[in-house]
Amino acid sequence: MKGIANPLQVSRFMQVYDAAAARKGIKVSIGFNFDEYVAITRATPTKGRTYPNFRPDRSPIKSGEGFWILGVDKNDNVALLEAARLYDLSHSNFAEHLQSLKVFFADPALHAHHQDCCTCIAPSAKKITGKVAYLGDRWVRRDLRGQGMSKIMAGLARGVSYAMWAPDFLCALVARQLVEKGVVYGYTHHEPGGSILRLIEEDIVDDDCLVWQTGEELKSLVEGGNELILTS
Hints:
This protein is an alpha+beta fold. The chain has seven helices and eight strands; from the N terminus they run αβαββααββαβαββα.
């Protein structure tokens, strides 16, 4: 997406979500060191293993091309986690990037098992190109679920993604049951068959929907003040 983010509008947008988290007793911070992020996720009870695309041992993230969100409660216990990274798909598309396994591994020939595979049949995945912001690894502690924390996380991740990258697309892969329940916020579009995935050594078997919004839709959300807190 062309253009530069309006820092004042981004600040106003982010403040809505930071304040909403604070009202629930959660202090939010942003990090960029993914070795630190993996250490936090591994030490967090009930948090599943972080997928390899956010682990430096399998997919290093260059400075300025990724961030993570941490929320802690009044006792400094981890309450929220999410990660984001930027893919340069100026000469490719998201479907190709998935099926080559390069979404998950910097070097699939080195790190992927010979039986690993990913199929993407979501038609729009081939149209997702350019600067693509990918969100994932979201975790909300059980006692905080059903309290609007997913909207808060969605807003924070969008604000930072827009401020850092002003991407052409923002997307994620989400379990179908979550899409069907209507608890996936901020994405304008969704299609089934985004990632039919098997990673042997990671013990991962998924059949996820592709969810996304365009860069213009992201800009309209952030700079237009259409807060997810106020609308589903």
